[in-house]
Amino acid sequence: MKIFLKTEDEIELMRQANQLVGKTLGELAKHIKPGITTLQLDKVAEEFIRDHGATPTFKGYPNPFGEPFPASICTSVNEVVVHGIPSSDTVLKDGDIISVDCGALLNGFNGDSCYTFCVGEVCDEVLKLLSVTKQALYDAISVVQVGRHIGDIGATVQDLCESHGYGIVRELTGHGIGREMHEDPSVPNYGHAGSGVMLKSGMCIAIEPMVTLGDRSVGMMPDKWTIRTLDGKCAAHYEHTIAVTARGADILSTFDYIEKTEDK
Could you give the C-alpha distances from 67 to 5, 38, 87, in angstroms and in order? Predict the structure, then answer.
């Protein structure tokens, strides 16, 4: 395992990349409504990222099978947990939820963030799933301190979400991030407090609870990218990139641009 600690200057460059990702998600929030296709959303995202001098990190990114991801964002609708491929055939409808995962490479460093959006009016059961998953993200961020451990993050997510009867996906985790999109260490959403890698100042990690309304079991679709729940129930996914500092967690990404759009 090789963990790259970032300097203050490098963290500021990472902040720029992550702020651009936040702005991209905010731009997408203006377009997420019944009738739009996920491919249309992808085109909006790619144009926005490139117009701001960055490159969509996900486009062409290989999976373990060597299959390059064909789009600029992951669009995961309802029972799709992660890595949904944008398509002209996937039309959003009232009552859907969509998790949009976005990455951008700017000035040599990566930004990465995900947000689960409501499409029109969503039922209360699913709204609660989204609320708890988002809270789990912020609860996990709140325990980040130099000298604590990766297991503290996972235990925090697991304890909150399982207390509501939700499933925690085991096959997918958060990750270190920097010049590469995926660096060490892995950041599971489950585990035991006090276990795992010790957090050090300069570590940059993506914390990303992936939580299911029903059973936690997931499967891969034939495209070798799309991961969905086996029981067909909805999943939620929120992600922030953070830097570990002597003051605790410094959140480099942002949901502010999304929330400004949602408040209108």
Answer: 30, 20, 17
